Fold this protein.
Amino acid sequence: MSTIDITAGNADPAELARFNQLASRWWDESSEFKPLHRINPHRLEWINSLVQLPGKQVLDIGCGGGILAESMARKGAQVTGIDLADKPLQIAQWHAQDQDVDVHYANSSAETWAQQHAGQYDVITCMEMLEHVPSPAAVIQASADMVKPGGWVFFSTINRNFLSYMLAIVAFEYIMRILPRGTHRHARFIKPAELLSMANTAGLVLREQRGLGYNPLTQTFRLHGFMGVGYLLAMQKPLQAEGQAGLNN
């Protein structure tokens, strides 16, 4: 396991400060990060069902405290996690060491990392991160640059509409208090068609899509077909040029 210090620009200082402040609670499943712990098994199994993680070279962009990165390593992938928030990275490294899980972590933006790692990864994940940066298109382009031809890129984020405002912000942050107030800004949510357009521009093609649902009675998440709030896209970098896929959401 190694930590490399490489930092760069596409970040919101207020977002980084907030995640640094919360870092010590990242692996506490009753903390503010409870939703990530509940979501993780679903996104992990979905990713693994499409790419078969064992033996794959994987990059997790915006890895935070390492919940997804560590779980992919446990599946047998060779995982690197990058983030610009240094305290969550430290927590991720400590936890991986304590659990004897081999994950490499680096303090870097996707754009900076791409300068030295073009075409290196079989799989790239960027989950619950794009809505926290000023330029999601730059992260998407860097992801496309770093994945091998034939490789996969997985994105998850939140749709921008009235329903997502009421559920992801009003309900989750103010009524049920599942997330801390101020976790999300509705203006930074991304419509699926917008994300697809940015990914297509970067040379990625849609292969599969899922919506993320939450049941407040059972406090459980599931993947389903409705993409009106949270959603995940599985993109692939084709071996050769092919037509662009479309979304209706």
